[in-house]
Design brief:
globular; 5-stranded mixed sheet
Amino acid sequence: MKDNELTSKVLGLAFEVHTALGPGLLENAYKECLFYKINESGLYVKKEKPMPLVFENVKLECGYRIDLLVENRLVLELKSEEVLNDVHLAQTLTYLKLGNYRLGLLINFNVARLKEGIKRVINDHSVSSV
């Protein structure tokens, strides 16, 4: 499955979750429901994937965790905020860089229309395998 197909499928599931729950819940509620929907769809998904920081060739566990990682390549950073800001975008990009992933979605469920709460994030410095 290509990146665009995977992204479309996951976004479709996110829309289903948002339609069912609406805005106003805690981030964890959306994470659990989206994890369930992705898993039920047959895609491989990992929840709360630890992301160590490598500093001077030493792997340090600093408590960083990806909310959801789909098919070992699509990072999902979920929020339930009044508004997304640059820090949220930077957090998503950091996870992409730490894990050497290329594609991420920053999704804010605390909006009336989910379309307005989605940002696609690309790490242009990832190393692709051939």
